[in-house]
Amino acid sequence: MTEPTAADLRAVRAWHSRIAGETDITRLVHWRATLVSQMPPAATAGRMVWLVMAIESRTLIDRWLKELAAGGGETPTGRKTSGRPRGYIESYSPQAKTLALLEDVDSVLTEYREHWPLTCRQIFYRLVGAFGYEKSEAFYSKLCHHLANARRGGRVEFDAIRDDGVSTVTMRHFDDEEHFKAHVRALAENYRRNLLATQPVHIEVWCEASGMVFQLAEVAEKFSIRVYSSSGFDSLTAKKELAERICTIGKPAVILHLGDFDPSGESIFEAQAEDVAAFVATDRPWNDVTVRFERVALSAAQVEAYRLPTAPAKKSDSRSKRWDGETCQLEALAPDVIAGILRRAIGGLLDADQFQQDMDLQAVERRRVALALPAPSVRDG
Length: 381
Prior knowledge:
Number of strands: 6
Number of domains: 3
Order of helices and strands: HHHEEHHHHEHEHEHEHHH
CATH class of the largest domain: Alpha Beta
Structural class: alpha/beta
Largest sheet: 4 strands, parallel
């Protein structure tokens, strides 16, 4: 057998260096499984060198993966890493304790499937209330970690959970003329009347947590009511735009607000109500245009009625000095309870007879619009 060539040794050194500098667990697991498949042909000196390197590298990777699973560490070259996966986790195999937690998560997701996506905080509170898990930020952080990995590993559906998300600007661009025509036909088939247009009041829903927007929209959209999120911030831009919408629509408006029962949540609600009302009072086209803010949730009465878990007000919040009692987060309320509260609040503001007339007219108009469009081309199917 001949001695290893310079090319053999360079390949081995390059492979070793590549592994030593890697910080991605998923790629490490993949490389560990494919080491043998990349060996040089049999009966060469290069293969013998590769075999030795493969054994050393597997030992190295196995030791490193254990360190990363324990909560971070260093690469063999001393490079710091958090151990966080990137992309999908191809070989997701959580420990027995984590599996038990995920089985309880499955129960929560199944129970509230019609309210998907849930937020991590909603799952947390349901686990605390129904399964006796510890109500602490430490457990919440651990839960978020496991929920992220379970989604990456295919154990939990991505659509089941929504993190506080990203904002974007929608673009209505089309591939070509036929694509646009197909889009118009789809609009006709799903034609929806603006059911608020003939109502005596304009209604909007606002909530603190952006992750809950889609869940609340499942209720509000049926009434042509839009849901907005302030993400827990007192935005001047958002308040001015809200006032402009109200003045443009030109009729009384009611803003249904859902937020945490704490000094910050109450303060944001009051600031929004006062600021928007002041803008509307100055810019309204006539005196009938007014705005009223209604706190739908969370209130002290609801915290008591539903026996929700509470916590002391944060001492770091200067507004806590004027706060009497405990605090509670909106997501402590079960998703179906929130949906019911919001549905009743909306129903109490609508003219029921007018709403039914518009629903009947919507069915007639949908058929009329669809018949007015040309038949689809072969490309449209």
